[in-house]
């Protein structure tokens, strides 16, 4: 199951107390700002979550996996995301007990209760800037 934009709007509506229209407008605005910033080639850094950035890739030679013949892959810009250490630790602590010694995940085992370290880190940075 994936988290969709509509799911995010619904959570903002329920948890932050905005109207559905306000929640939708707020989520749209956040994504618009992120897209515009990335389109300018700038990084988006979200404390406690991670960094989004644009990276230029050079032209390179690759192989067609079906035929094995070599082909040129054109230069392009790619979006990258690097999760923060806090986010990595939060996710790992919730799910690591489901993985056996062979690296196979047993999804029938429930995840552990999560911590709010990533979101608390984000909120505390906002409060520090406002003070």
Order of helices and strands: HHEEEEEHH
Derived from helix and strand composition plus strand pairing, the structural class reads: alpha+beta
List the quaternary state of the chains: single chain
The major beta sheet can be summarized as:
3 strands, antiparallel
> In what order do the strands lie side by side in the largest sheet?
1-2-5
Arithmetic mean pLDDT:
86
The count of β-strands is 5
Q: Could you say what the CATH architecture of the domain at 1-40 is?
A: Irregular
Radius of gyration: 20 Å
Query: Number of helical segments?
Result: 4
* CA(first)-CA(last) distance: 39 Å
Share in β-strands = 15-25%
What is the helical fraction, as a range of percent?
40-55%
Which fold does the CATH topology of the domain at 1-40 refer to? HU Protein, Chain A
Shape: extended
Low-confidence stretches are none
CATH superfamily of the domain at 1-40: IHF-like DNA-binding proteins
CATH C-level label of the domain at 1-40: Few Secondary Structures
């Amino acid at each position: 199951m994936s988290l969709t934009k509509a799911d995010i709007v619904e959570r903002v509506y329920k948890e932050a107390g905005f109207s559905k229209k306000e929640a939708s407008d707020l989520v749209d605005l956040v994504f618009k700002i992120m897209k515009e910033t990335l389109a300018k080639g700038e990084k988006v850094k979200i404390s406690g979550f991670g960094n989004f950035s644009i990276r230029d890739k050079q032209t390179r030679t690759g192989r067609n996996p079906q035929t094995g013949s070599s082909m040129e892959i054109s230069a392009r810009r790619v979006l990258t995301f690097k999760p923060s250490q806090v986010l990595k630790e939060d996710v790992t602590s919730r799910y690591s007990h489901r993985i056996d010694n062979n690296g196979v995940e047993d999804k029938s085992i429930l995840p552990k209760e999560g911590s709010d370290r990533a979101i608390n880190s984000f909120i505390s940075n906002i409060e520090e800037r406002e003070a």
